[in-house]
Amino acid sequence: MDLFYVLVGTVVFAVGGPVLGCLLAGIDRKVTARMQGRVGPSLLQPYYDVRKLLEKDRVAVNSSEEVYVATALVFTLLAGGIFFSGGNLLLCVFVVTLSALFFIVAAWCTRSPYAEVGASRETLQVMAYEPMVLFMAIGYALGIASMTGFLSFDVRAAFYMPAPVILSNVLVFAGLLFVLTIKLRKSPFDLSYSHHAHQELVKGVTTEMSGRTLAMVEIIHWCENVLFLGWVGLFFIWNSAASILLALAVVAAVYFLEIWIDNNFARVKWQAMLKGAWVVALVAGVVNIGAFVVL
Amino acid sequence: MAFASKSPWVIHYDGSSCNGCDIEVLAALCPGYDVERFGIINTGNPKHADIFLVTGSVNEQNKAVIREIYDQMVEPKVVVACGICACTGGIFHDCYNVLGGVDSVIPVDVYAPGCAVCPENIIDAVVQGVAVLDEKSKALKKKRKEAAL
Ligand code: SF4
């Protein structure tokens, strides 16, 4: 039965994820423009961009690059399906990491020196956020366990709880917010693939990608954003319809905060990112999870 | 409907410009003129760009570079010569190593004269370039359809 839910969830996410993600990206660009004192593009600009990319001629460097990117897209959709159908959070984390790995391989396989720099930076980003993301899943499961008595990574479990998981996971949530900046590809941690003009070695991971492949990369990015914001919202869900509204409000506030950070901080070196993320994971994750074990 | 005109991403290359035109190109991207209103984004990657903005004249040194950037751009693509130097060689036209305007190495679609070319002119030229882009995009679609038959 679980598999059935995941499949239905994946199909629904494959339609809803890109639509929502596209609107989020549009809002991002509009808000960014306002923060910089500009009018900014229309809300649907990200959609126009992708449609334009699909119209471009097909000039792939090799035939495998597009396959890797398409696989990354499929795994992102699957991760979204697992999450939004109420499935296993840990599995969702692993599947979305697999998608990130395929994206890295896609950049490596082109043999372009610029794409390789981007790919190795992307690898560092994955290394930086992964510990905290795993702690997030563990913290969630322990939060559920502290209320029900048994460990469950299931997302749907949150909807049956008497209180939101955030109450016992404040530090884990703070850590998640820190790595969220890396995951959403926002400055100061947009090391591998920046949306801002001219701060990149050509264009990082996507240097050799064009047309349809680049369009898929954009769609992956949209879907990932929706999924990661879903993780944020999950911490505020409990057995009450009002909790969904609260979760949405928190998600909106967090997204605004991320855009604000993006516009106000210059990019850091990868050493600072890696150290920062690991220290945060160590402090936030280990202390919070240690508290569960001790108390 | 072609979407090429809705999201023209540009790449800017400085040939042997005196930097006057370059500053104007960048001014067009700044808040005062904010060309992102029209979906225009400055990319540093020829493979992502639709419009090639060249400033300054062509000389023996940069001939190959301009060719290379043009060749790496993916169809449909448009070239805009920004400033009189890029159009004809301008004030530098009779220098010993200057070959002339951009059209001496690659086909140019829109000429934006001026010394220096003002941001309004650049925006005008890009808007004209966008119309050409749409045509090329439609032609490409037709060609693809024919190839599929
Ligand atoms: S057109 Fe005038 S301002 Fe522009 S590059 Fe030539 S000399 Fe400089």
Write a brief structural summary.
The complex is a heterodimer of chains A (295) and B (149). With 295 residues, chain A is mainly α.
How would you sum up this structure, described in words?
The complex is a heterodimer of chains A (295) and B (149). Chain A has nine helices and no strands. By secondary structure, chain A is an all-alpha fold. In chain A, helix 3 (64-84) runs parallel beside helix 7 (211-234). Chain A starts with a helix and ends with a helix. Chain B has one domain: Rossmann fold (3-Layer(aba) Sandwich). Chain B contains four helices and seven strands. In chain B, the strands form two sheets. In chain B, strands 2-1-3-5-7 form a five-stranded parallel sheet, sandwiched between helices. Chain B has a two-stranded antiparallel sheet with strand order 4-6. In chain B, strand 1 (9-14), helix 1 (20-29) and strand 2 (41-42) form a beta-alpha-beta unit. The model of chain B has no long low-confidence stretch (mean pLDDT 88). The interface between A and B is medium-sized, with 31 and 26 residues. Residues 17-18, 20-21, 55-56, 83-85, 90-91, 115-116 of chain B line the site of iron/sulfur cluster.
The run of helices and strands of chain B is EHEEEHEHEEH
Helix percentage range of chain B: 25-40%
Average pLDDT number of chain A: 89
Largest interface in this structure: A-B, 31 and 26 residues
Query: How many domains comprise the coordinates of chain B?
Result: 1
Structural class label of chain A: mainly alpha
- As a percent range, the share of helical residues of chain A equals over 70%
Can you list the ligands bound to this structure?
iron/sulfur cluster
Q: Measured on Cα atoms, how large is the radius of gyration of chain B?
A: 15 Å
In whole angstroms, the N-to-C terminal distance of chain A is 36 Å
Strand content of chain B: 15-25%
Annotated CATH architecture of chain B? 3-Layer(aba) Sandwich
Number of strands of chain B: 7
Task: Kindly give the count of domains of chain A.
Answer: 1
